[in-house]
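User: I'm writing a tutorial on reading structure tokens. Could you give me a worked example: one chain, its sequence, then its tokens, then a sentence or two explaining what the tokens reveal?
Assistant: Sure. Here is the example chain.
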Amino acid sequence: MEEKNLSWMNFILFGYITIWFIELVGRFLSFLNISHMLLSTITLAMVMVFANLIVFKGLRQPEIFAGIEEKPKYQGSPLTKQEKEEYLQRLQAYMESERPYLSPSLTIDILAKRLSISSRYLSQVINESLGVNFFDYVNDFRVSEAKRILTDASSNQRNILDVLFDSGFNTKSAFNSVFKQHTGMTPSEYKSSHGN
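And here are its predicted structure tokens:
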């Protein structure tokens, strides 16, 4: 392993000691009624120069920061591949049959309790198997439901507020934002583009 040169840390220590020394001298002079405006200005200038030199010296040795890696999120999880597959099947079957996403108050804890799975495991299954987080997963179902309602001829008279509540959203801003993110259109534009 390549040895890192940390001698610049001495520079940091020396810089701090110098700045403290100048500040202490300034305080002493102020007790003697000697204006220390000049010393304060010098101290401030030194702090600015010193901070920039620290950054510069740190950037010249990026290997100092090498090896600092974030551990994979579920590295120590005891969940097996077989359990993941089983939980994913249970989750998808439940979402299709029971449609819990229609409740705006649905949380991962509520869903995990209904599936008799720990919320940590459920989060892991959604993240690793589907590549999305819980909210994106649920919102995908909600947007699909909203699209279905918006294109249904029998619900032509329903306004956008009815659609957002009936598809599981609880605010117009969240509904519009998520819907546009998924479809590239606002709910009203989507409805118009399908002749409703």
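What the tokens reveal: The chain has a mean pLDDT of 82. DSSP finds nine helices and no strands in the chain.
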